[in-house]
Amino acid sequence: MVEVRPRVGVSGCLLGSPVRYNGGHSRCRFLTDELAEYVQWAQTCPEAEIGLGVPRPMVRLLSDGRLVAKDGPADHSRAVAELAERSSPGWGELDGFVVKARSPSCGLFGVPRYSAGLPGERTDGQPVDHRGRGAFTAALTAACPDLPVEEDGRLNDPGLREHFVERLFAHARLRGLLSGGWSAGDLVAFHSRHELQIMAHDPQGCRESGGIVARAGASREETARQYRRVFARALAVRPSRGRHVDALQHVFGLLSARLNRPCRLDLLETISAFEAGLVPLSLPVALLRHHAVSRELPYVAGQTYLDPYPRELRLRHYL
To answer: What is the arithmetic mean of pLDDT over 171-181?
Structure first.
């Protein structure tokens, strides 16, 4: 069901490129061995690209957001800002970004920040706090607040990994639609396919996006801008188990009239088992998809909730 190959920015060291400060890499096997087959990468290493070389002296993030040499007076803040400005026109063509955790240039969360000499800050060489965001990633997230961005360490969590990949492919499908000569009917069809998926994340976002679709005969540019924003923000909400149960029961309701009693009971039992944490999400989804296809119900079978990304990734086996 996935028609568009996501374009994903990535810190080059995570794909095995030897661009870290010590000449090494931080290869993330999920990215290189599993996800790579289904996406297009756009690699970057801000520190190398501003001319620091490999290997290079270590840099630090200061409490005022500046990026400086660990030992010495060099301040690389302006160079990183200029790199971000040069790179930003291409960010609109991306569907997500994976950055290196704790990197002073790329980290998303918890980057150590050191004293910038502000009043009350410690001066013993230890971090002031661990609440920083890498200088390059700070510019990226400020310019593209709705772009899915994640860091490598958090991708070890099955729930965060599945949620991030789901957002990548949803973002890519919408980009594919809006980059062409779409019509109001195309947007209606797109929303119809994604309705249950959006609902599982954010019911209010589902209602709001539906209202935008209903007004799709107005300005195409404004409609696209509004829908893109609401769609992205709704999917940024991580669905709870209860929201998944609601979505599964909704699919069941669409199928139930075409099923005999044993099939209905089997599906309800499987959904209840998922709700209790006894089986993974992939099991009730597979059963619902099977019945939708075998009963020739294209509206149900075509719901992206049932196939949000390539099945070969097997991400719902761990939810």
So the answer is: 95
**What's the per-residue H, E or C state across 195-228?**
HHHHHHHCHHHHHHHHHHHHCCCCCHHHHHHHHH
Pick the closest to residue 20 from 67, 69, 68, 54 (CA basis): 54
pLDDT tens, position by position, 297-318: 999 999 999 999 999 999 999 9
Alpha helices in 276-318 (DSSP H): 282-294, 298-301
Residues 119 and 13 in one domain: yes
Domain boundary pick from 86, 121, 156: 156
Q: Rounded to two decimals, what is the model's pTM?
A: 0.95
Distance CA 191, CA 208 (A): 11
Cβ burial, residue 258 (10 Å; 0-12/13-18/19+): middle
CA 283 – CA 280 distance, rounded (Å): 6
| Residue 38 to residues 75, 168, 248, Cα–Cα distance (Å) | 39, 11, 26
- Sequence-distant (6+) residues with CB within 8 A of 123 are 115
For residue 86, give both structure tokens. Answer: 């040069």
How far apart (Å, rounded) are the C-alpha atoms in residues 17 and 228?
Answer: 33
Each residue's pLDDT tens digit, 83-137:
999 999 999 999 999 999 999 999 999 999 999 989 888 878 899 999 999 999 9
Q: Which two tokens stand for residue 180?
A: 């062409």
User: Is 269 found in the same domain as 193?
Assistant: yes
Alpha helices (H) in the chain, listed in sequence order: 29, 46-47, 77-91, 135-143, 158-178, 184-201, 203-214, 220-235, 241-255, 261-275, 282-294, 298-301
Domain match, 150 and 187 both = no
26 neighbors 152 (Cβ within 8 angstroms): yes
